[in-house]
Amino acid sequence: MARPRRLSAARVLAGFGLATLAALALADLDLARPDPWLTLQRIGAGLLAPEFGDPAALGYAAALTVAFAVCGVFAGATAGFALSLAYGFAPVRWLCILIRSIHELFWALLLLGITGLGPLTGVLAIALPYAGIFAKVFAEYLAEADPAATRALPRRTPPLSRLLWSRLPLALPELGAYTLYRLECGLRSSAVLGFVGLPTLGYLLETDFRQAQYGAAAAAILVYLALILPIRYWMRLRLAPFWLMASLWLLARHPAPPMGDGALLRFLHDAVPAPIRVGDWAGLGPWLSRLLGDQALPGILSTLVLSQLALALAALIAVTGFPLIVRRVTGRAGALLGHLALVLARSIPDYMLAFVILQITGPSMIPAILALGLHNGAIIAHLMGRQGDALTPRLRSDAPRGVRLAAWELLPRLSGNFFALCLYRWEIIVRDSAILGLLGVATLGFHIDAAMQELRTDRAVLLLGVVALLTLGIDALSGWIRGRMRLSAPGMRKAEPETAEAA
């Protein structure tokens, strides 16, 4: 059977270029603030003079941020490892795909009605999507382990013993490295959970900004950066039991709201479409039609428009930013400064960054586009820069230097990696575009948040299903394009832990 014709990079660029132009025509790019420069000056003044007015409150919020992350990632890794053992079964695989396609903030919004505004909500909001991610990655690592040890065991060895005595010991270093990387991601997720009311650093940041206390907000940002930037030094595998016990102790002491009687059953009841609950099966069609026509389809369009512009900006930042950390382009000192800039850009969660920009520009797509583009562009640029720095230069007497080296040698040689990494991040950008609707952009997240505030759980659950299907559709399209382009660049699964360690 003949292989499908290879999809050229020029065609892919042309297609995404046309999609970006169409998105520009449909996007809401108005500056709603009457004087954004005045607000920017005030925020800048606060950043230059942070106010640590209540160190105890800052310290407690930072401790809870770490505790939610550690417990959520540990629970997700434990559940993910158990699921990875049965990942080959279609029902388990589809369950993992479903739970990881929903953002942590969406999980938190759903859980608030069941477990309340307490520690369990924060831990589960991180653990549920991470369990699906861990299951997929752990299953791949176990499958890739050297089969020689398995073949050396007696033929009648039970499957569990084969796993424990052959594949698992070989895969443990990779499982541990990936878990440590996920702890960095969990710290970002934990901070963002403050925007739904959980008392992490994100809660302090939102409160201070809404009260125009920019110095206090700057202090919260600095404390967050002081946690995440040196994470490779204070979060090590041998210290993981200590951090887990300390986190469990702290969360156990934090006040938790009592769960209402039958909260879960009430949630499941409310999640059933309203016409079915009252026995009006004939009304289900009009109910679905109104919800899909008035909210789902406009939300999908806005989500795709936002994600397309963010992807284009991320690609532009990656192409222009990766040479910053290549020593043969910027020198040793320049590479160090470039490394610091990219680490800062990718360490701040895109939701938090969008919220800060929103205070300057007002509600539109601008904050979301800038935040998603900067965050994801810095991730791609960092990976490309590390790969470019490791490339062996061509031995020519007239070899280019500086910017010419980046444009005429490095970028052509890294083009496959560039396309692969952009396509890998595409699905993540779409997922995050949906959640940024909580900030007022009319994506799917905006309609989900409105449904939750109106206690219309059935509408929220259906729209979350739309988010999951949209994310999976983009992931499938991205995989199809990568396959047709025959890209062999390293995937994000293996590249991300290297990036986390480099931070």
Automatic annotation (TrEMBL):
It is found in: Cell membrane. Signal peptide: none annotated. The chain crosses the membrane at residues 57-90, 97-117, 187-205, 217-235, 296-324, 428-448, 460-481. SUPFAM superfamilies: MetI-like (SSF161098). It comes from the Bacteria. The keyword Lyase does not apply. InterPro entries: MetI-like_sf. Keywords: Cell membrane, Membrane, Transmembrane, Transmembrane helix, Transport. The keyword Cell membrane applies. It is a multi-pass membrane protein. PANTHER family: ABC TRANSPORT SYSTEM PERMEASE PROTEIN P69, PHOSPHONATES TRANSPORT SYSTEM PERMEASE PROTEIN. This is Phosphonate transport system permease protein.
